[in-house]
Design a protein that fits this description.
The complex is a heterodimer.
Chain A: H1 7-22, H2 26-51, H3 57-67, H4 70-76, H5 91-118, H6 123-154, H7 157-164, H8 183-202, E1 218-220, H9 222-226, H10 228-247, H11 252-275, E2 280-282, H12 291-329
Antiparallel strand pairs in A: 1-2
Chain B: H1 3-25, E1 30-31, H2 32-41, H3 48-60, E2 64-71, E3 74-81, H4 83-117
Antiparallel strand pairs in B: 1-3, 2-3
The chains are: A mainly alpha, B alpha+beta.
Chain lengths: 338, 118
């Protein structure tokens, strides 16, 4: 039989749902969530004083329902109220999709432009084509995504969602909500993009690739070159994870699963690469005087990879110990946010 | 009569008045829920989901100042009018009285003209 939720749990779920739909920087989200909670607590206290007793969970549930769907509450903090093409229930998903599609498109187009610049076409023509495509995408992508969501809205799917919602059915508050410092995910995103561009420049060219110097003093080993796509995908997923961390769009649990997956895959890849031996080999423009620097460079690369594996492994171990400790300390008690 | 048109115009009219009422109420410090109750007692019903974002906007415009404090064992955010807010409120009240007088004059003039016709 399902256990009835307490007043505190209902309130926590509601505030958590508002938090998840705000899609604002973490500092603002915390502030707004605290205000929504404070307002609802004042409501509950006021009703309790008027009735001369504590409110029952069904009364708190009715009060939350009357207060409005969490998406609508969140929406009020984002835009002016009024009728819109995309309803507040759908808007966070719409906004996320729009930004994600634009980001993916721009990333791919930048990489294509970088590759084309290596070819024989004049740079001016390539840049003009890039600018033209950018302008077209700025119109076509938002138009297409908006049309898609407007049709969804028209089909009244969101109407049914918003009318039938119940506070009891809102997702429970995760047992641990990480509070990342605001700049950290942004630094991760920038680092990921730099890594992505570096990989594109060095490893993804099919015909000729270089690492240092003009056109191939040192070039990647066969093993490193063979792993170019997994490396690129890792960087891409890392940017996606950092973006989710910044916006807190996905639940903390899913972000943690994604992070654990990326770190595990990165460790496996690093171990494989180190085990294959030298990661850089002599290129077509290499000469014997550079032999020593090549050896040093390979030692440094291997050292960085081994050190990275140790640090990442320890971080994974710490996460694992935390999960075990938490589950043994609080077997079935849901976390109540303060 | 088109009720939806009336409703739309009424909402527009009330929106402007609400800002004035909120600023006037916050001459003394209040937390959000107390402000809702004070407005309600004064005859102005306001949707809380409209009020809180409005308070934030007024704070961003530096017309309000806010601070978190504990009251009755609860953490609450208290809002009050800032010095800039006080000045703006004075101007808005003056504007309100001017508008009110003008509307009275215009509507009175129309009634008098109609009576003359009759």
């Amino acid at each position: 039989m399902k256990r009835e939720l307490t007043n505190q749990e209902l309130l926590d779920r509601y505030v958590h749902a508002v938090r998840m739909m705000l899609m604002l920087p973490p500092g603002k989200v915390d502030d707004i969530a605290a205000e929504v909670r404070s307002n609802l607590e004042s409501h509950i206290d006021d009703r309790a004083t008027a009735l001369g007793r504590e409110l029952r969970p069904d009364e708190v549930s009715a009060m939350l329902k009357q207060h409005g769907h969490p998406a609508k509450v969140a929406m009020q903090y984002r835009e002016q109220p009024g009728r819109s093409l995309i309803s507040p229930v759908l808007f966070p998903l719409y906004w996320f999709t729009l930004r994600a599609v634009l980001a993916v498109w721009v990333t791919i187009r930048v990489i294509v432009a970088v590759f084309t610049l290596q070819g024989s076409s004049p740079a001016g023509t390539i840049l003009l084509a890039f600018g033209r495509d950018l302008l077209l995408a700025a119109v076509i992508i938002p138009g297409g995504v908006t049309l898609l969501f407007a049709v969804w809205e028209y089909l009244e799917i969101t109407f049914r969602c918003s009318e039938r919602w119940r506070p009891e059915a809102l997702a429970p508050v995760p047992s641990h909500v990480p509070q990342p410092a605001k700049p950290r995910p942004m630094v991760q995103i920038i680092g990921g993009i730099v890594w992505l561009v570096f990989l594109a420049l060095t490893l993804l060219q099919s015909q000729f690739f270089w690492v240092w110097g003009a056109r191939g003093v040192f070039i990647p080993s066969d093993a490193l070159y063979a792993m170019r796509v997994p490396l690129w995908l890792l960087a891409f997923f890392w940017i996606a994870h950092s973006w989710l961390d910044y916006t807190r769009f996905a639940a903390a649990r899913w972000r943690k699963i994604l992070r654990t997956g990326i770190v595990t895959a990165a460790i496996a890849l690093a171990i494989f690469l180190v085990s294959t031996g030298d990661l850089l080999i002599a290129g077509p423009n290499w000469n014997a005087t550079q032999a020593r620097s090549l050896a040093t460079l390979n030692q440094m690369l291997a050292g960085v990879l081994v050190l990275g594996c140790i640090v990442a492994g320890l971080a994974l171990l710490r996460t694992f110990i935390r999960i075990v400790r938490r589950s043994s300390n609080h077997p079935r008690t849901p976390h109540l946010a303060s | 009569m088109d009720l939806s048109a009336f409703e739309h115009l009424r909402l527009e009219l009330r929106r402007g008045c609400l800002v004035l009422a909120v600023l006037a109420e916050l001459r003394s410090e209040r937390h959000g829920y107390a402000l809702v109750k004070a407005l309600r007692e004064g005859g102005l019903e306001i949707d809380e989901n409209t009020l809180y974002p409005l308070l934030r906007r007024l704070e961003t415009q530096k017309l309000l100042a806010s601070a978190w404090r504990v009251e009755d064992r609860r953490n609450k955010r208290f809002y009050r009018l800032s010095p800039e807010g006080r000045a703006v409120l004075a101007w808005l009240l003056e504007e309100w009285r001017t508008l009110n007088d003008a509307i009275e004059t215009v509507s009175e003039a129309q009634v008098t003209a109609r009576r003359r016709k009759v």
